Amino acid sequence: MELRLYDTLSREKRTFVPIDAKDVRMYVCGPTVYDFAHIGNARPVIVFDVLFRLLRHIYGEAHVKYVRNITDVDDKINDRAARDFPGLPLNEAIRKVTEQTGAQFHADVDALGCLRPSVEPRATEHIGEMREIIERLVKGGFAYVAEDHVLFSPQAMNAANSSLPRYGALSKRSLDEMIAGARVDVAPYKRDATDFVLWKPSKPGEPSWPSPAGIAVEGRPGWHVECSAMAWKHLGEHFDIHGGGIDLVFPHHENEVAQTCCAFHRERMANYWMHNGFLQVESEKMSKSLGNFITIHELLKDWPGEVLRLNMLKTHYRSPIDWTLKSLEESAKTLDDWYRVAADVAPGEPAASVVEPLLDDLNTSLAIAALHSLRATDVPALAGALRLLGFLSETAAQWEGRKQQASGVDAGEVERLIAERTAARTRKDFGESDRIRDLLAAMGVVIKDSKEGTTWEIAR
Ligand code: AMP
Ligand code: ZN
């Protein structure tokens, strides 16, 4: 099986060749845990879950390591903690915010049918590795100390006469242009406008750790160095795939590459850089001010997680997605149908017609089209392919039962009405049987008559 992946750095689709096929390694930037995750945040989680499953399918479950971090030190977390728990010492309030938000995130993405990554490192548990990277960068001349901060110098990186990558190569930006376009209000401790923070001093009460590079006051890490440290600790200096949303290419991933390659004298951090496109809602950018900001948690009250998952995967991961109610309704209908025909069938090998498009840079839209064709031709292969994609976690009865529960329809009452209708039909009282059918329709129940009797389901 040949897997091809689009790499943001080389800007081409390339055959995926793992560094070690017995230990395929992938890192994806995870959430900053300060608030409910929104449906845009769900996109990378679902997309890279599909890639994780596909890699496990190709290389074997024991041979794929997926690391997705939890950013639990960040100014947004501090602000939230101070606002939500004003009576508590800041550190305790922060712990409450990160614990609650982290647990909510897990509940949300579990419901979306995503496997837990192999490791979910927390930033606060990797401060030692961050300090180590920072020390190396200062010693190497790539970073400097100023006013209790440590700053990384992209200009020092690009001036180094070595096999390091160029700063700006990932995001295709030239450092000269970045310097020319820099804002005027650059922090006074920066030598150059393009320098970015590796470490900064903490204010009293804020989370703080002993600082690197001989700085006397305690401080905390910048966001970018957190990912370099966690990826290093769990995947090594050089690994296979690094993923995240397209908005992370610059500055976050550009800075991660810079830190890791300069600290470890490497030409590369990851061999393939993968980025998902953005999600908008009903053709508008999602934002709190527009009032169209939807959390996964809210959506899960109205839709099963697998419906959200299917809806996400109908679009290729690199294209923008327009998240609409209409599309969600269609996804729900499709899943109802697949559950009915395939959930209780012993799954066969996932169909080649589904796996092949996935091997072509995760073409899930084509894979889903193939699922529709399989429904008519090979239901066991459909069931196998759906499971590979993370669907059919329930039985057909559980799925239907949940729908009934969510609709508030009383199954006993429906059964009673259907029995009355059958009796009316037997005595040829069609006026009465039509009346009962309309009554059921008004309750949102659709009935189907066949030789075996009458079955029913909740209409979507
Ligand atoms: P954040 O919490 O903003 O750092 O985002 C966490 C992850 O969600 C990152 O990989 C982002 O790129 C991704 N992300 C955030 N907003 C969206 C969106 N509207 N569409 C797709 N991905 C998003
Ligand atoms: Zn990151």
What does this structure look like?
The chain is built from 17 helices and 14 strands. The chain is of the alpha/beta class. Helix 4 packs across helix 8. The relative contact order is 0.12. The protein binds adenosine monophosphate and zinc ion (ZN). A motif ('KMSKS' region) lies at residues 285-289.
Shape: elongated
Count of discrete structural domains: 3
> What is the CA-based Rg, rounded?
26 Å
Which class best fits the helix and strand makeup?
Answer: alpha/beta
Task: State the helical fraction.
Answer: 40-55%
* Gap between N and C termini: 39 Å
The percent range for strand residues is 5-15%
CATH architecture call of the largest domain:
3-Layer(aba) Sandwich
Characterize the main sheet: 4 strands, parallel
What's this, in brief?
With 460 residues, this protein is α/β, with parallel strands linked by helices.
SSE arrangement:
Elements: E1 4-7, E2 12-15, E3 24-28, H1 39-59, E4 64-68, H2 75-84, H3 90-111, H4 127-139, E5 143-146, E6 149-152, H5 154-159, H6 175-180, E7 196-201, E8 219-221, H7 223-235, E9 239-245, H8 249-264, E10 270-276, E11 279-281, H9 296-302, H10 305-313, E12 321-323, H11 325-342, H12 352-359, H13 364-377, H14 379-388, H15 396-407, H16 411-426, H17 430-442, E13 445-450, E14 453-458
Parallel strand pairs: 3-4, 3-9, 9-10, 11-12
Antiparallel strand pairs: 1-2, 5-6, 6-7, 7-8, 13-14
Helix pairs in contact: 2-3, 4-7, 4-8, 7-8, 10-11, 12-13, 13-14, 16-17
Bound molecules: adenosine monophosphate and zinc ion (ZN).
